[in-house]
Amino acid sequence: MCGIVGYIGKPKPIAEGLEALKRLEYRGYDSAGMAAYDPKEREVMCIKAVGKIEKLEKKLKGINIKASPFLFYTRWATHGGVTEQNCHPHSDCKGNIWVAHNGIIENYQQLKEKLVGEGHKFLSETDTEVIPHLLEHAFKGDIAKAVQKVVPLLRGAFALVIIAKQDPTRLVAVRKSAPLLVGIGKREYIAASDPSAVVGMTKEVVYLDDGEMAVMSDKGYTVQDINGNHLKKKVDFIDWNIEDAQKGGYEHFMLKEIMEQPETIADTMRGRFGKEAGTAKLGGLEVVGDRLKNIERVHILAMGTAYLAGLVGEQLISEHARIPVDTDPASEFRYRKPIIEKNTAYLFISQSGETADTLAALREVKQQGGLTLGIINVVGSSVAREVEAGLYNHVGPEIGVASTKAFTSQLALLAFLAAFFANRKEKKLPEITEGLKKIPGILARMLKDTRQIQKLAQKYAKIDNMLYIGRKYQYPIALEGALKLKEISYVHAEGFSGGELKHGPIALIDERVPTVALCLSDSVYEKMMSNIQEIKARNGPIIAVATEGDKEIAKIADDVLYIPRVPEPLAPLLSVVPLQLFAYFMALLRGYDPDKPRNLAKSVTVE
Ligand code: M6R
């Protein structure tokens, strides 16, 4: 929900910290701040600004100090309004200890009352500010020891990076239920919320686990548990470049990520086709191969767009591998006192691998002994580390808040999973595997010309409400189309199954409420056509997404976006793309930044 960066090493111009922070802006962008220790002056300089990171950048212009250690922070407000006072880093009463925090301290009220009673002066309304004040109490010249004393007092979720003016040769980073890693350079270290912030300096990283603390200096680093016991940690290698996390000539990350889908789907599929048509080779699941033999049910758990990918997966696996599948939002599952079954595989889908609800559901299943699998994009993320086996998307960093390339990659992996489960029953799915091979080429052709979608957005840019309908494989795509539109263009949009229309939503239809109808030439075409007729009969404008060659639809719909014909279970990989682009153009025409939608953060690491 917030982005944090901490650096220690040879003193550097603070502009370098700002560059690292910019790559975390997707995590929150209502305000930004920094605290930097200037070794010449032996002072900490703290500067904060409300608004996007450029606002902080402007304030830092002309400040030419070289600093180490330093902290940078970009905020997505949870406690207290969007003000400079509430922005991190926060300090103790003496301006000695400085803390940047991602997460929520649940017991901050009690802690704050006690600290105020003892005479501590608070400047913000945040939960975080209790931390530097607690550290002030515990500090006896060694910031790492002080952190060890304070962490057990904190309830909630936190990734913290901490510096102290009176112990300026160390940077401390500590994690509990919020992402944090350490980038390892040559006698310089950078602690950050995700790898995109460190990749400009180093590709070697250590991912911290819950309850672990990294203590860094310009001489080296150690990872310790909270009692100070040293731990041996694996050093991972980031296998993508800084350019992958940049816009590559596009105006927005979202557009770049939509446009790169032909390549990202190809990357997802690489090495996953079996020798024979209709078979899948999923090396990531081999470690649980024996347990998977007895699987009688799959339960998919995820949030947002990843959940909607799960709904497509449910159709795919149950229809083609003939295994019953349930799909639930992880947030609801976890509070249901779920019954965990021995012969069920629990599949967690998450782009970031850090979504709090998905992670909590995963832990619940694990605790009860269920078999956990994952589809995750961010390598080394919490979900990736905690599932027993899983598949990486390999689509590179997804920066735009609206998930696009991760979604199509999730769909591709779910199609592989359907083949994988079918193969266990001696069944092959050649239509699916051979169809998948053609998807990147087809998508590349579809993405060559986006002008029709742009024009459509011009036609509807001023509407207030929009409905999306689809059936079977296209029902989750209707939900995803509506989610994309509402989250970045702020048009009120709802998705329904075509069958639900007459049970309530049809009351909304009139000439001011357009409906996007996903009406492909598939097994539910006739049914969708009836739904479209029902809408037209009530003067509702129709934008149809249809299969190339369907002339009938053009007679009824006001606008038609054609997509090439592919096997029905794979059509979601194509039909979602015009809806992603439509939402993107709508956001631009309505004057909004699609990469940074209001009130949203890329990775929802709190409940
Ligand atoms: O990182 P995750 O895939 O777990 O994220 C889940 C949702 O928060 C995410 O898909 C969200 O719905 C997107 N903003 C949708 O575009």
What does this structure look like?
Residues 288-427, 456-597 form the SIS domain. The chain is of the alpha/beta class and 607 residues long. It has three domains: 3-244, Glutamine Phosphoribosylpyrophosphate, subunit 1, domain 1; 253-446, Rossmann fold (3-Layer(aba) Sandwich); 451-589, Glucose-6-phosphate isomerase like protein, domain 1 (Rossmann fold). The chain is built from 19 helices and 27 strands. The strands form five sheets. The chain has an eight-stranded antiparallel β-sheet, with helices on one face. A seven-stranded antiparallel β-sheet has the order 7-8-9-10-14-15-16. A five-stranded parallel β-sheet has the order 19-18-20-21-22, sandwiched between helices. A hairpin with a 2-residue loop joins β14 (212-217) and β15. The relative contact order is 0.09. The model has no long low-confidence stretch (mean pLDDT 94). It binds 5-amino-5-deoxy-1-O-phosphono-D-mannitol.
Number of domains: 3
Beta-strand percent range:
15-25%
- As laid out across the biggest beta sheet, the strand order is 4-3-6-1-12-11-13-17
Q: What is the count of helical runs?
A: 19
Write the CATH homologous superfamily of the largest domain.
Aminohydrolase, N-terminal nucleophile (Ntn) domain
EC number: 2.6.1.16
Domain Glutamine amidotransferase type-2: 2-219
Active site: 2 (nucleophile), 602 (for fru-6p isomerization activity)
GO biological process, one term: carbohydrate metabolic process
